[in-house]
Write a structure and sequence with these properties.
alpha+beta; globular
């Protein structure tokens, strides 16, 4: 790789402490001041923080992918995506993936493997330290009932071929960045192949 132009970035100095402006439902919105390393100008940066998440690319023994459809309040729409959820404090990302898979789909996995690096993937690094992990759950088998959270009303579970998932990606039916990233990582690591 070659450098085309530009200086090597340096960390900006934090000025003071961060200030939380609002906090609700596990999400915080705040501001933090930083000093520009070359000019000395102090700028205020807004940020949001939320718990880490996990997204599961769940594969059946036949190589199909489990999708879920559910109502998402923030976008006021029914969304097609992979099973996903929040990682509880102190919970391992792989354990959270297994839990979310069972809760949302009623399926259990033979094996769950982290497909994002041990470092979380970042949602919006300019505005948040929050992130998410992705994993693959292989040889998933139906164990019956879903165990939905109090914030979930109904989740439809779908089994799709890789070609159908590819078409969902191409057409924009799967709009969740986390789901798209989990599918990409599963493919990149050889767990998922598209014709």
């Amino acid at each position: 790789m070659r450098v085309i132009r530009g200086r090597t970035p340096v960390k900006w100095k934090r000025v003071g402490s961060s200030k939380i402006l609002a906090s609700s439902c596990g999400i915080e919105i705040g501001v933090q001041s930083f000093q520009h390393p070359r000019t000395g100008v102090v700028v205020e940066n807004s940020f949001f923080a939320k718990p880490e998440g996990i997204t599961v690319c769940a594969l059946t023994s036949g190589g199909n992918i489990l999708l879920v459809e559910q109502f998402k309040q923030a976008v006021y729409d029914i969304v097609s995506e992979l099973p996903s959820g929040l990682i509880r404090p102190g919970e391992d990302a792989v354990v959270a993936g297994e839990r979310e898979l069972r809760e949302e789909t009623g399926f259990a996995s033979g094996k769950v493997v982290l497909t994002s690096s041990p470092e979380k993937l970042l949602h919006a690094p300019r505005r948040s330290q929050s992130g998410f992990f992705t994993c693959v759950a292989s040889n998933c088998r139906d164990e019956g009932n879903q165990r939905l959270d109090a914030t979930e009303d109904a989740i439809k579970v779908l089994e799709a071929t890789p070609e159908e998932v590819w078409e969902f990606l191409r057409s924009g039916k799967i709009r969740s960045v986390e789901s798209r990233e989990a599918i990409f990582n599963a493919s990149l690591m050889g767990y998922l192949r598209f014709s």
